[in-house]
Specification:
This protein has 76 residues and is mostly helical. Helix content is 41%, strand content 0%. The termini are far apart.
């Protein structure tokens, strides 16, 4: 009896999508999250203390945009 050798064909490598955020943006957002957890992060408009995780991320991304880092445009 002849046995067939299993041939495993590799699928073609998928192209990775382009990076949406630059690596340094993550550090900016991380810094804002730490400030929020510490209780020292305040919103720019009203000056009230930030307690929302989403708001802290938005502040970090906003500051990264101001510095000219690679961040997608704000959607509304």
């Amino acid at each position: 009896m002849a046995t067939k050798k299993a041939t495993s064909k590799k699928a073609p490598a998928k192209k990775k999508p382009a990076r949406r955020y630059s690596p340094s943006v993550g550090k900016d957002v991380e810094r804002e999250m730490k400030e929020m957890k510490k209780g020292t992060l305040k919103s720019e408009g009203s000056g009230k203390k930030v307690t929302s995780r989403k708001q802290a991320i938005a502040i970090g991304l906003s500051e990264a945009r101001k510095k000219g880092k690679k961040v997608p445009a704000k959607t509304s």
